[in-house]
Amino acid sequence: MPSATLLFASLLTLLYLYLTWQVISRRREYRTPYGFSDQHPDLERAIRAHGNFQEYTPLFLILLFLFETEVQLDWLSYLLGTLFLLGRISHACSLLSVEAKRLKRGERLSIAFRLRFFAMAQTLTALTVLAILLLVHFALV
């Protein structure tokens, strides 16, 4: 069976390039070579979507590679890779589409905020499961 790490590293790289382009195109549109200003919240959201992706993806790919080579449960590698990828896509969509408002007491959560919450739950679940399974494997070997 082909490597799950190879598949998800490739797909996640394509998503990373898309997020990079989102930042570049907004910087060009607003003529903002670095940083951001309060006048362009969509630029700030693009920067955060890109940055958040960079914060979680390398660790996930390292853990997935270790899990795949050490534990060798292909079906679970693909399942966790899919969970992480969907979480990263959902998170990017939630930030790039509509800004989640700061909620006042009694207000309903926006769809973007709910999507972002669900996306982070997917991301953190995939990372947590991989970390725990690797620790269990380490303890048993």
Describe this protein's structure:
- There is one protein chain.
- This protein is mainly α and 141 residues long.
- The protein is built from four helices and no strands.
- It has helices spanning 4-30, 41-70, 74-97, 111-140.
- The longest helix is centred in the middle third of the chain and has 30 residues, at 41-70.
* End-to-end separation: 24 Å
Mean pLDDT level: 90
How much of the polypeptide forms β-strand, as a percent range? Answer: under 5%
Number of E-state strands: 0
Major β-sheet profile? none
Shape category:
elongated
Rg computed from alpha carbons, rounded to a whole number of angstroms:
17 Å
Query: Strand pairing plus helix content: what structural class?
Result: mainly alpha
The assembly state of the depicted protein chains is single chain
Count of helix runs: 4
Low-confidence stretches: none
Order of helices and strands: HHHH
The percent of residues in helical segments reads: over 70%
Q: What characteristics describe this protein?
A:
single chain; 141 residues; 4 helices; 0% strand
What's the quick description here?
The protein is mostly helical. It has helices at about 5-30, 40-70, 75-95, 110-140. Helix 1 runs antiparallel to helix 2 (about 40-70), helix 1 runs parallel beside helix 3 and helix 2 packs parallel to helix 4.
